[in-house]
Amino acid sequence: MDASLFSSMLFATVVAGTPLIIVALGLLVNEKAGVLNLGAEGMMAMGAVAAFAVTHQSGSPWLGVLAGMGAGMAMALLFGVLTLTLMANQVASGLALAIFGVGLAAFVGKPFEAVALQAVPPIRIPFIADIPLIGEALYNQQALVYFSWALFWGLLWFLYRSRAGLVLRAVGESPASAHAIGYPVIRIRYLAVLFGGAMAGIGGAFLSVFYTPMWAEGMVAGRGWIALALVVFATWRPLRVMVGAYLFGGVMITQLFIQGSGLQIDFPSQLLSSLPYWATIVVLVAISRNAGTIRLNSPMSLGKPYRPDA
Amino acid sequence: MLELEARAEPSRLMSLLSPLLAVTLMLAGGLLVFAALGKDPAEGFRIFFLNPVRDLYAVSELLLKATPLMLCAIGLAIGFRANVWNIGAEGQFMLGAVAATGVALYFDGSESGLLLPAMIVAGALGGAAWAAIPALLRTRFNANEILVSLMLVYVAQLFVSWLVFGPWKDPDGFNFPQTRMFGEAALMPMVLEGTRLHLGFVIALAVLVAGYAFMNRSYAGFRMRVAGEAPDAARYAGFSANRMIWVGLLLGGAAAGLAGMGEVAGPMGQLTDKVGSGYGFAAIIVAFVGRLNAFGILLASLLMALLYIGGEQAQQYLNLPSSISMVFQGMLLFFLLGSDVFIHYRLRLRRRAAQVR
Asked: With contact defined as beta carbons under 8 Å apart, do B72 and B91 qualify?
């Protein structure tokens, strides 16, 4: 493989992995607080369409990202009211959010289907972008790529080095104990759910404003679900989320490069496109095979409603 | 101040009333949506909710639409009752359609009366085979069936488009992504003269009855209900969890596959890349709104079919995107999940502490 091909594949892999990182890290916080929100796909779709619409109207991609974040949070709030205040089943409510979000996004996005946005130029970090081979691929990137790295470091600090992170984890492991010590379990869970929604919205915004500057129904294409799967693969650890997301990015990109390379491979493109989904299943199987690992690492109260008595 | 207070026992009355409450809220929400979109709410209501039942033909179209929904939903409900979360009915639906199409194309030109039954069997087996993948991975490797069954939806969609763009493309079809039209013997007979309502509807009703018998009258169904409602009791009684996963997924897959077969051998008459039209996902809503029981599912599938057709009507007469039906369907499920709180809790007026002397 020559250097320029390597560089462009690395670049594309990082770009493809970025929305997965942002969304999966948001879900990780969500799940660390003991709340399982399966609605990521719907929140991403709403984030994507809101970001696209606002960017298209205002001309500013940053307002778009904010709008995407807001839309994701609004969806997450809906989920929070159902599951945290009204004690509805988290699995059912998450599925509802996924179906509803995708549908609502298709509905409000209809007028924007035929329009395109201007591509947002990448931000070049001086000096380190000159590193041969990898500099151009890693440090001449979209702002949200840098954001995903900051989010990762920030979360590592928050979850494992800050008091607030400790409380969050306590709420996910044993809400009753956290409540007994006097922490507002429901309020903390609301914040975690809203954070998850915000990140899903930004992930969606990345897709529609930066990745492919356009809106099409179904453009999220299962990335919300893949992000949910990533959190399981990563056994709820941020570093493994990063690695997993780039692996997936790599699978998606390799598949595209093979299709675009004009190599005479006698393999239908549709079947090649299903590779990332198969890869998700294979990795899920590899990680879940050992039931103990999952049980040890998943937050104890994940998916279980908690209602403080009085 | 209002506050929620746990009931001593779940209210049976509320579990019946809550779907009605949800429907009422959805209708009210619908009026607001129409008003917000600048349409006359009364006109919107008439077109969306009344047009689909205005005459016999319209009703037959409604029943046609409800057919795949009730089939998929009854299959899913059996699994959901045992906490087996198969959400890939959409993929199983497509694989059922593919298997049935395979039989129809292989015996193209045959006039045998056995062709249609063979397609029905193939459809059910195709759906069940696709559902067997998450069942196997869950029971053998503990892989989450929600994620696996969902991933397989995307795989199924790509597989279908490969077939209709590639090996199964109709050579005389002007390059459209579709197979050749099925012969007469491979099509479902009509049950109502002058409409498109076909035998699949009758089959779906029969499957509903069978589903009811399985869940409420058989020992296997009883075990599944126990596993869902009291997992510890089920484990103590020695019910095999793996067997329930297999039964839940295979039955769900078979029913969805049957629904897929009914679409290609019914209204479509061929396989196209548009075969999966979201019935498998909508069926999740149907199953919940129908309270996971057969009679409820019958009513819920009619309601959801109404929302689908209402969306098409709104597109035609109100110039709104037909995806408005998905908005209504989502609202319905949200309102239901919200109303369900009253099954386990009741509202109580609580006085401020200061007012109590």
From this structure: no
Average model confidence (pLDDT) across chain A: 89
| Mean pLDDT estimate for chain B | 90
Nearest-Cα residue of chain A relative to residue B320? A107
Pairing of the two strands A123-124 and B2-6: unpaired
d(C-alpha B167, C-alpha A285), whole Å: 31
Residue (of A146, A193, A194, A148) closest to A25 by Cα position: A148
CA distance to A55, B71, B331, per residue, from B270 (Å) = 42, 20, 33
Of A222, A228, A285, the CB nearest to B137: A285
Give the burial class of A263: count Cβ atoms within 10 A of its Cβ; 0-12 exposed, 13-18 middle, 19 or more buried. exposed
The predicted model scores a pTM of 0.89
User: Which residues of chain B make contact with A291, given a CB cutoff of 8 A?
Assistant: 142
What ipTM goes with this model? Answer: 0.87
Indicate whether A271 pLDDT > 90.
Answer: no
pLDDT in tens, B62-96: 999 999 999 999 999 999 999 899 989 999 999 99
Cα separation, A216 vs B240, whole angstroms: 45
**CATH number for the domain harbouring residue A43:** 1.10.3470
Identify the domain containing residue A26 by its residue range. Answer: 1-309
Please state the separation of Cα A234 from the chain's center in Å.
Answer: 13
* Closest Cβ–Cβ partner in B141, B151, B340 for A277: B151
Segment of A284-293, B34-43, B254-263 carrying the highest mean pLDDT:
B254-263
Q: What is the pLDDT of residues A235-256, one digit of tens each?
A: 899 999 999 999 888 888 888 7
Looking at chain B, which residue has its C-alpha nearest residue A110?
B321
Helices (H), A127-184: 135-139, 143-161, 163-173, 175-181
Q: Could you tell me how many helices (H) and strands (E) chain A has, helices first?
A: 14, 2
In single-letter form, the type of residue at position B206 comes to A
Q: Residue B145, Cβ neighbours under 10 Å: how many?
A: 24
